[in-house]
Each structure stands twice: as C-alpha cells, then as structure tokens.
Q: What sequence folds into this?
C-alpha cells in the first residue's frame, strides 16, 4: 500500500481499539492506547496508537493528536526502561509499505535493545507466547 489511500476501518489496530480482537494492554485513556506487539522484535516491544484518529501515517495525522501519541510514546519508553533495564531503546514509526509499514493505522514502536542480542526482523518475527507478553506487560505497567 502506498502513502496515498483510504483508511481501512477493519485494520487490525482498529479492531483492537474496538475490542474485537484481544491485545495485551499497557495503558489507555480516551485518546491513546499502548499495548504489546504480538510479533516482537525484542523482549518488551510495544506499540502506541491513537484511539480517535483515522490517520494511516504521519503525513495524515492531526498535529494535536500526534502530540498526544508522542507524549504517550515517551511515557511508554520511560516505563519500558524502568521495568526492563534495556541497554538501548529504539523508537520508530513507518509510513507506507515500501518503508516497512504493515498495519495502516499510525503507530509508534518502542523496541528495547539488549547488548549482545540481535534485533528480530521487522514484520518477520514469530508470535509471542501470550503469557510471556502478560508477564512483561505487568512489569512495564508497574513502572508507569
Ligand atoms: P508496522 O509494520 O506497520 O510498522 O508495525 C505493525 C506492528 O504490528 C508489527 O510490529 C507487528 O508485529 C504488529 N502486529 C501485527 N498484528 C498484530 C496483532 O494482531 N496484535 C498486536 N499486538 N500486534 C500486531
């Protein structure tokens, strides 16, 4: 999918927001939702989305909504850092399929990095064990 196109109200993150498919949540309010990535590139990989915007990418995002999502991304990064003590943190965001985007509802990734551990390939990792995700989420949520 290119940068141009229409928002698909049945994309996987829209379904997570509506509660139509499960997710391991970290925090949410009426504006944003943070949850664990189910195909993590590293231990503690998590995502932040807007619950209100239908922006597919950063080009379409309303600036005031983007500000809320970025603030939530920083909040998540701080909690991941406090809970998991990684050696580094990648914060990233992809726009358009050629750039690596696979879900077309704007989101930020928070990906902890650990010395000596290779990063999993984006979009090609295996599905995480849900109990492992819940245990990580409990640690991260406790550090919020
Ligand atoms: P993108 O490739 O669009 O930047 O990122 C989409 C992310 O969503 C990927 O890291 C992928 O692992 C994650 N993802 C895809 N499907 C699901 C799902 O059903 N649940 C969760 N929690 N994450 C998903």
A:
């Amino acid at each position: 999918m290119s940068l141009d196109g229409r928002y698909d109200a049945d994309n996987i993150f829209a379904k997570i927001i509506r509660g139509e498919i499960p997710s391991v949540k970290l925090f949410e309010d009426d504006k944003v939702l943070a949850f664990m990535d189910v195909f993590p590139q590293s231990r503690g990989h998590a995502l932040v989305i807007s619950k209100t915007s239908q922006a597919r990418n950063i080009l379409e995002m309303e600036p005031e909504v983007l500000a809320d999502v970025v603030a939530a991304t920083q909040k998540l990064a701080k909690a991941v850092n406090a809970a998991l003590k990684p050696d580094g943190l990648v914060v990233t965001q992809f726009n358009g399929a050629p750039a690596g985007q696979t879900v077309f509802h704007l989101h930020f990734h928070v990906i902890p990095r650990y010395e000596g551990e290779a990063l999993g390939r984006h979009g090609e990792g295996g599905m995480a064990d849900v109990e492992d995700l819940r245990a990580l989420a409990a640690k991260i949520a406790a550090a919020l």
The pocket of guanosine-5'-monophosphate is lined by residues 12, 23, 35-39, 94, 100-103, 123 (CB under 6 Å). The chain has one domain: 12-142. The mean pLDDT is 96. The radius of gyration is 14 Å.
